[in-house]
Amino acid sequence: MFNEIYNQQPTNITEGIPCFGNEDDGDFFSEEELSLWDSNFFYHKLSDKKFIENPVTNHLLSELSKEKNIIDLASGPGMGLISSIFQINPNILCMVTDANLSLLKKWKS
Questions:
Q1: What are the extents of the domains in the chain?
Q2: Nearest to 104 by CA among 9, 17, 13
Q3: What is the rounded distance in angstroms from the CA atom of residue 94 to the CA atom of residue 55?
Q4: Strands 93-96 and 69-72
Q5: Which of 85, 92, 73, 17 is nearest to 45 (CA)?
């Protein structure tokens, strides 16, 4: 089963992002929501210290940041764990996945 998933080829590549399946399968966000990510929420998470200052999450992030690479499934703009890991280890390699192409474009940028 793992080899079938690992060897699967993308159905297309959009702006350098490999896409699997149908783009209509994921969540949909309005232009207003995408604009909100740009102006406030999404990019604010890239510099948010909230998780680093929380002792429990700080420990988790510190352990994760010791890895050479990580995968974030359903990466969403929500918790911002990846951006917090990058604050600890800016050289870590990370693959983010999500059912929403718009969101992946934001992460890529």
A1: 31-108
A2: 17
A3: 23
A4: parallel
A5: 85
Q: What's the token pair of residue 99?
A: 């059912």
Give which of 90, 76, 80 is closest to 53, Cα–Cα.
80
- Please report which confidence band the pLDDT of residue 17 belongs to, taking 50, 70 and 90 as the band edges: confident
The structure's pTM equals 0.61
**Which of the pair, 41 or 98, is modelled with greater confidence?**
98
| pLDDT at site 14 | 87
pLDDT tens-digit profile of 41-55?
Answer: 666 666 666 666 778
The whole-angstrom separation of Cα 98 and Cα 95 is 10
